[in-house]
Amino acid sequence: MSTPAQPIEKVCIIISKGSLEGVYPGLIMANGARMEGIEASIFFTFFGLDAIIKKRMNNLKVATVGNPAMHMPTVFGAIPGMSSFATSMMKKEMEKIDIPPVGEFLTMIHDSGAEIYACRATVDMFHLKAEDFCPEMDGVISVGQFYEKAAGGQIIFT
Amino acid sequence: METAILAGKTLALDADGNLANRNDWNEEIAKEIAAVEGIPELTSQHWAVINFMRAVFDKEGDSPSIRRLTKESGVDTKTLYQLFPKGPAKRAARIAGLPKPKGCI
């Protein structure tokens, strides 16, 4: 007899990329976890940090170069303005299905009880300061602290 | 089909355990479902969410997203999670006698 699968109680999501399509899946999964009553935290690292930097969070762009799923030749993707165009198209479609802009989404996720952390190594590497971040950021933590916080949960790397 | 006895009536449930027929629902039933879900008393804020969800469902055929709940029901995200711990959209839909919301947001 098989035992029934244990429901997931906690997820720790790592967002490591700073493109629009690199950031949203993690945000959607964190928000979705909270909607299901699952404990959630997000750890932003490397270029993923752009999503919690005040000046950059609402200006993330879709990568139109080096992305075969854009279904356009690389030279088209490299035309000036192409990334902005693709980004505005995608944002329009997201708004239609009620996916908020990054800043609003982070507030929503934070209000739902999820915790938001920045990676210590990246913050040091890019010489970032506390005031560069959105107010939802709960702290700058090391990898070790991240693993401590992740105890008992599932880690999802995006 | 699963059934549950709510407010003295035997009612059909869908695969998720929500009411199968929206017309079976009334406020007494909502209170009983809420009690099972660990919400002993429905406050005016709970009712604001429940009534908003039912109104949206009647018009659009699906429950509103958390974002819409937050923007349009008059209850903010933090409060929403306090009112319906362990998953506001799903819990509120069940108490409102609606199917589980289809959306991801």
Short description:
The complex is a heterodimer of chains A (158) and B (105). Chain A contains 6 helices and 5 strands.
Question: If you had to describe this structure to a student in words, what would you say it looks like?
Answer:
The complex is a heterodimer of chains A (158) and B (105). Chain A is built from six helices and five strands; from the N terminus they run βαβαααβαβαβ. A five-stranded parallel β-sheet of chain A has the order 4-3-2-1-5. With 158 residues, chain A is α/β, with parallel strands linked by helices. In chain B, 47% of the residues lie in helices and 8% in strands. The longest helix of chain B is centred in the middle third of the chain and has 17 residues. Chain B has one domain. Chain B contains five helices and two strands. Chain B has 105 residues and is mostly helical. Chain B has a two-stranded antiparallel ribbon. At the A-B interface, helix 1 and helix 4 of A face helix 3, helix 4 and helix 5 of B.
Which key features would you list for this structure?
heterodimer; A: 158 residues; alpha/beta; Hypothetical Protein Ychn, Chain: A; 5-stranded parallel beta sheet; 5 strands; 15% strand; B: 105 residues; mainly alpha; two-stranded antiparallel sheet; 5 helices; 2 strands; 8% strand; globular
